[in-house]
Write a structure and sequence with these properties.
The structure is a homodimer of 196-residue chains.
Chain A lengths: L2 H25 L2 H8 L3 H7 L3 H24 L5 H18 L1 H11 L9 H21 L8 H23 L4 H16 L6
Helix pairs in contact in A: 1-2, 1-4, 1-6, 4-5, 4-6, 5-6, 5-7, 5-9, 7-8, 8-9
């Protein structure tokens, strides 16, 4: 794709992310999205043939944004458990700052409305968390008898709920505090007895 | 309201719960709901003037069903921490067995689509959990220094995420297992040092 076409496509996705974040899938119109993106309907239809296709692209772009921000943290020199905590904070901050991430997560919760399979992103995060927990068990910051697959699943599920309930009760105002509290309640069960 | 009118209203809510559970708010039609409920359109419109009103009634009925099942557990003679764990299992079982509960929870996640404030049910469960945690701290099964307000919020958020991710990844097939694992990861931080 030429750079100009790529730029237009990204503008459409960003506009769509903002509209989906604000009004959800059912209430979003392609007219609103072209206005928000500053593109013509022709330009939008050149890249996307339906609202559903656009919603899937926003979810994909959201996951790509968070993965890109996460890959730096995941590849850093910090201990694995610190990287895992850093990933959660980063995701929380993206939910506060990035309209495409806000839109993508809202669409993920509404995914059955447009018959989308959103298991992939959840599974990616569960795999990443399990890998980091295994590393942490090797470097001794996590006890060796923790079931890393089960804990990774629990962590991703808890994080999902923490950000959703923070959104419902405080419009995410207390999100970063609730993520820290989540870790306060999780760390004692992970840490080896001597340091807990 | 006369008993017959009450029965009809409940039939409509049950039919609506099934339809919302299966296709979500956006895709549900009042025609499908009347068919599923086995009532006429006239009977439906006698009780509900819009899909939104019906969705709010399903959420309300869902919360009432789970609260009713929960009140027995909450009032039992069992230790407070056991009652709290029992409430989570009961809610999980209702999500597996009760179409109105399935519909109400799906609508709760989609609530922004029809501009509904769903903070009430979350707040009710957070308050119930906090009360039981305070009781458990008094009877010595939970350590006295646990921040019960913060933990109650964390528990409700985690439970919300656990059931949502179980739905996305396994259509709730592993829900009861994931609820047990949640408690395995939570209990060590709650239990007094001597018994952990």
């Amino acid at each position: 794709m030429q750079q100009r076409a790529k730029d237009t496509r990204l503008s459409v996705i960003e506009g769509a992310g903002r509209v989906f974040a604000e009004v959800g899938y059912g209430n979003a119109s392609l007219t609103d999205i072209t206005k928000r993106a500053g593109v013509t309907k022709g330009a939008l239809y050149f890249h996307f043939t339906s609202k559903r296709e656009l919603a899937l692209a926003v979810i994909e772009e959201q996951h790509a944004i968070v993965l890109a921000a996460g890959s730096e943290i995941a590849a850093s020199e910090a201990p694995a458990l610190d990287r895992l905590m850093g990933l959660c904070r980063m995701f929380g901050q993206q939910l506060l700052d990035e309209p495409v991430v806000q839109g993508g997560i809202r669409l993920t919760f509404e995914a059955s409305a447009f018959d989308a399979d959103v298991s992939g992103p959840y599974q990616d995060w569960i795999n990443t968390a399990e890998q980091l927990l295994l590393e942490a068990a090797m470097d001794g910051t996590v006890r060796a008898d923790v079931d890393s697959a089960a804990f990774a699943r629990y962590l991703v599920a808890s994080f999902t709920g923490v950000q959703m309930v923070s959104d419902v009760l405080t419009s995410r105002e207390d999100l970063m505090l609730r993520i820290e509290q989540m870790w306060q309640f999780m760390l004692p069960v992970l840490r080896p007895a001597a340091t807990s």
